[in-house]
Specification:
Shape: globular
Distance between the termini: 27 Å
Order of helices and strands: EHEEEEHEEHEEEHEEHHEEEEEEEEE
Helix content: under 10%
Largest sheet: 17 strands, mixed
Structural class: mainly beta
């Protein structure tokens, strides 16, 4: 049983006049007075948990949590789980729970007008926050919490002293995920007149919005194998293998009626590029193996991590991210899919920890010692279009990172 109080604050600081006057700097202008402000919310929460031993072998657990947010109200979640001891070293376990994620203050209140050059002139694009009248004219309601149903089933096994194995399968169904929409044009006659008139009155060519729009299902399995061996009174050896295999499906994209005026606008709301990006946030496979040796106050270790393959896309020749295609280098009249295929890669880290005292440790090491980088974000048949991605560089922000070798040292203090 317990209780919690949390207060969150988000502030957008007004820029200098020159940073936004007349459209401001190319691309990302300064924050105008209308886009600036200080926003906060608070919430109270309480929870209650109960375990019940049905028998020596069978354990049931349950937890209920209730919270009340100042900006969107109250909600409750729960979890129930069970464990059945087959033998002293083998257990089955499973759980079912509900969950949620409140929309962040940034998703609710951030807004900005971006200025760029297009066809020889300045064009303004607006990211409208959730309270902006433009957002309501686009048919997007107030943001609410993302919700989920989570199911898992697995086992834990200790086949010998020092060795443990756990395998857990899971399925997570999420509803109302918050996403940032594509750009909708003030010149689109199929959109509501009130919306396009408002955009034109503000001198804004396009607008995009945060919305609860996407439902997904994640299915996967987590694997953990841990082995520890005490070699002597002062020496210890540890091996750890962790892995994850999973897939993600997009179950539904809920386009507001005001923006769902034709097939192009429906695809603009959450385009193919964003779909690939969402799926790449849950890579199909990842494994890591760590070996660690400790003697007295000194430990050394190495870790090898495998990042599985994934695919992202560029914006395409049209720049809208819908079925992105680009011309080949060999023939500008022949188009190919602008898919960035990132193959599986291994990285290797080494580290050492020296305990200087009971409260101070010195740690040093190197990540990615072989300086491995992701594959380039380009279709090999259309290298001219390299850089047509989120970063504008040779790589996207994939999970393994793209900075290569990193050396580090740090001091750790315990209080």
């Amino acid at each position: 049983m317990g209780a919690e109080f949390r207060n969150e604050t988000f502030e957008v600081i007004e820029g200098e006049l020159a940073s936004y006057d007349g459209g401001g700097a190319d691309s990302f202008s300064g924050n105008t007075p209308q886009n600036s402000g200080k926003f906060n919310r608070y919430n109270f929460g309480g929870y209650f948990s109960l375990d019940y031993d049905v028998s020596d072998a069978f354990l049931l657990s349950g937890t209920i949590r209730a919270e009340n947010y100042s900006d969107f109200g109250a909600l409750a979640t729960y979890k129930t789980s069970a464990r059945y001891k087959v033998t002293n070293n083998f257990n089955f376990r499973g759980s079912f729970s509900t969950g949620y994620r409140a929309p962040s203050l940034q998703q609710k209140y951030f807004s900005n007008t971006l200025t760029s050059f297009s066809q020889g002139g300045l064009v303004q694009s607006r990211v409208a926050n959730n309270n902006d009248p433009i957002t309501r004219l686009a048919g997007i309601p107030a943001l609410k919490q993302e919700t989920s149903n989570n199911m898992s089933l697995g086992f834990s096994w200790k086949p010998m002293q020092g060795l443990s194995v756990t395998v857990d399968g899971y399925k997570i169904k999420m509803k109302d995920r918050v996403v940032l929409s594509g750009l909708f044009s003030a010149g689109d006659a199929t959109l509501p007149t009130a919306l396009t008139d408002k955009l034109n009155s503000l001198g804004v060519a396009t607008a995009q919005f945060f919305a609860n729009a996407v439902n997904t299902t994640n299915t996967g399995v987590d694997i953990v194998v841990d082995y520890q061996k005490k070699l002597s009174a002062t020496e210890k050896l540890k091996f750890l293998l962790v892995g994850n295999l999973q897939g993600i499906d997009i179950d539904a994209i809920n386009v507001p009626d005001a923006l769902n005026t034709n097939e192009y606008n429906a695809n603009t709301f959450f385009n193919d590029r964003e779909k690939f990006f969402l799926k790449a946030s849950a890579p199909a496979s990842k494994f890591s193996f760590t070996a660690d040796y400790t003697k007295k106050k000194v430990s050394i270790g190495a870790r090898v991590t495998y990042f599985g393959k994934l695919t992202l896309t560029g914006f395409g020749y049209n720049g809208d991210g819908i079925d992105p295609m680009v011309p080949t280098d060999a023939d500008e009249n022949v188009f190919v899919p602008e898919h960035f295929n990132y193959g599986g890669k291994f990285t290797t880290d080494i580290y050492s920890n020296i305990q200087l005292s009971k409260k101070v440790s010195f740690i040093f090491g190197a990540d990615n010692i072989f300086n491995v980088h992701p594959d380039f974000a380009v279709n090999p048949q259309a290298k001219y279009w390299a850089g047509d991605n989120e970063t504008g560089g040779p790589w996207d922000g994939v999970q393994m990172g793209y900075n290569g070798l990193r050396l580090f040292t740090k001091l750790a203090f315990k209080f």
